[in-house]
Every structure is written in C-alpha cells, then in structure tokens.
TrEMBL record:
UniProt xrefs under SUPFAM superfamilies: DNA-glycosylase (SSF48150)
Catalysed reactions listed for this entry: Hydrolysis of alkylated DNA, releasing 3-methyladenine, 3-methylguanine, 7-methylguanine and 7-methyladenine
Name of the protein: DNA-3-methyladenine glycosylase II
HhH-GPD domain sequence ranges: 58-210
Entry keyword DNA damage: yes
Annotated SMART domains: ENDO3c (SM00478)
Keyword Zinc-finger: no
Species lineage: Bacteria, Pseudomonadati, Pseudomonadota, Betaproteobacteria, Burkholderiales
Length: 216
C-alpha cells in the first residue's frame, strides 16, 4: 500500500476502529495475531445507500467480473443512478444491459421503496441494526445477508455478526478449529469475545482468507 493510500485509509477509518482493535487484541488470541498483519488497512464505505443496494442486487448469483460488466452497462442508462431515475427506465433497456427479468423486478422494487420513503434513510443513524434489517428485507431480492453487508460496509455498524456468511464461517474454522467444520453456534461462541466489535473481527477474519480488502 502506498503512503497516499495509507493516509486515505487512516482518514476514512471508522471512529471506533482503533478502540476496536485494542479490545479485540486484548480479548482474543487469534485477533492478537491477525490484526498487526494488516497495518493501517480498515473498513471503508463508498457510494450512497441506493447505489450500494442496487449493486448488491445486480451482483447476486453471478461472478464478481460478470457483475461488474452488467453494472457498467446498467449504470450508463440513467444520467445518474437514483431511485427516481431507475423508475423511469424501460424494462427492455434494463434487460439489454444484461439484467434478468427477476433482477429488473428487484431493482424496480428497491427504487419504489426509496422513492416512496418506505425505507427511512434519514433516520437510520438513530435506528438499531435489527430495525434497519427489517426495513431492508422487506424489499424484494434483499435477504438478511445483504442487509448485514450493508450495515457493515455502508453504515459501518461496529457489532454485526453475519452468521450466514460462508467466508466468516470458513475463517473461524481455519483460525480457531484447525480447519474442522464449525456450526453457527460454534461461531457465535467464538464471537462472544468480539462484542461490541463483531464487524471489525469479521473484517479481519475475511482478511485472513483474502488479504485484499472486501468491498461492497
């Protein structure tokens, strides 16, 4: 990582990141080993809420490369990607960009929720994690895992434990159980020491499997 990008990473770090790292290194032997390996790298957010969720819908069940190709084509359709602009798009144009019929339906439903104010973006800061998850999973095509990734990567909530995430389960298996298969309850037991910074510990578990920062 260059000096410039290191500075950017530090500047963009969530306010709790330093305290979280100290807490995790004190409470957990694996974190004590992992955290120093990644220097100043940290969780960073990007984009706005609608764009972030739209990208997650486009990327479902296809490779990262394919998702990027479809997204690039789709992003050319409106002048700017907003809920109101997506609702103005023609279905045929969206299909021509590479979106399946179902994903078009999901994107339209997402746009409707944002455009009508059914999701309370402006009050998310004061809402707890489960209340936000409940709003998001009411949108077609968004399940709990997508909602949890949104909490971690967009809202940068500190204490999300995404037990449906394969990478997290595999990482706990590798780092805590010598590669043995672990259950959700095993994972939850390990994560008891991580609270109130489960998101941060999860990020480092992902890093242990893939040194490149996760980005959604």
């Amino acid at each position: 990582m260059s000096a410039t990008s290191t500075t950017a990473a530090v500047a963009a770090a969530p306010a709790y990141w330093s305290d979280a790292c100290k807490h995790l290194m004190k409470k957990d032997r694996v974190m004590k080993r992992l955290i120093p390996q990644f220097g100043d790298a940290c969780l960073q957010t990007r984009g706005d809420a609608f764009v972030t969720l739209a990208r997650s819908v486009v990327g479902q069940q296809i490779s990262v490369k394919a998702a990027q190709t479809v997204w690039n084509r789709f992003a050319l359709l409106p002048k700017k990607i907003t809920a109101a602009n997506v609702l103005k798009l023609k279905v045929d144009d969206m299909r021509a960009a590479g979106l399946s019929v179902r994903k078009v339906e999901y994107l339209v439903d997402l746009a409707l929720h944002f455009d009508s104010g059914t999701v309370h973006v402006e009050t998310w800061e004061t809402m707890d994690d489960e209340a936000i998850i409940a709003e998001l999973i009411a949108i077609r095509g968004i399940g709990r895992w997508t909602a949890e990734m949104f909490l971690i990567f967009h809202l940068m909530r500190p204490n999300v434990l995404p037990l449906d995430d394969v990478g997290l389960i595999n990482g706990i298996s590798k780092n805590y159980f010598s590669g043995d298969v672990v259950s959700r309850s095993d994972a939850r037991e390990v994560a008891a020491a991580w609270a109130p910074y489960c998101s941060v510990a999860t990020w480092y578990i992902w890093r242990s499997l893939d040194p490149l920062p996760v980005d959604y």
